[in-house]
Design a protein that fits this description.
The chain is an alpha+beta fold. It has a domain of 113 residues. The protein is 27% helix and 18% strand. It is built from four helices and six strands. The chain has a four-stranded mixed sheet, with no helix packed on it. A two-stranded antiparallel ribbon has the order 4-5. Helix 1 packs across helix 2. The N terminus is likely disordered.
Length: 169
């Protein structure tokens, strides 16, 4: 099965479902993309994060557990030593805490981090805003007797990226 998503007169190919996950190509504004290697920025942010984690051993343990979980689930892997010119981007990351979930740490990858005036987000097409309006959601609650809500665990990690785009992440 092959799906195609059309947006802004560009057509982006979604490949087969593999091991229960969609595999998609990144929606580049220009294909092939031309992104600068931002390794120095990512290393700078990593040194900053490391200093923070060294000062807070509890956070360090939780952060390391999150990283190990991403590696174990196959959502992340060690970056290769060889870079692909024009297609390599390193994602800085940091910890985020949710007030309703005390003690839980979530790793956020910063696709909007700027390097020489540009970010990964700047190089990708933006999809439509599919967020439902609160008024619409509340109005639909009165239509039926039962309401259902669901949450997909680690939703963004459920979609894989084509091998040729992996170096951009």
């Amino acid at each position: 099965m092959t799906l195609y998503v059309a947006e802004n007169h560009h057509c982006h190919r979604m490949t087969n479902i593999q091991e229960g996950h969609y595999t998609i190509a990144l929606p580049w504004k220009e294909d092939p993309p031309c992104i600068e290697n931002n390794r120095s920025l990512a290393e700078h942010r990593l040194r900053s994060l490391k200093k923070h984690l060294v000062r807070d051993s509890d956070l360090q343990v939780k952060y390391n557990t999150c990283v190990e979980d991403l590696l174990h689930k196959g959502c992340a892997k060690k970056a290769p030593a060889i870079t692909v010119p024009g297609r390599t981007w390193y994602l800085p990351h940091h910890a985020v805490f949710h007030p309703a979930k005390p003690g839980k740490v979530r790793i956020v990858f910063d696709c909007s981090a700027k390097y020489r005036g540009s970010s990964l987000n700047d190089k990708l097409l933006q999809g439509p805003d599919l967020t439902n309006s609160l008024v619409g959601v509340l109005a639909r609650f009165s239509q039926e007797a039962v309401a259902v809500m669901a949450d997909i665990e680690s939703m963004f990690h459920q979609v894989k990226v084509t091998p040729e785009d992996c170096n951009a992440l």
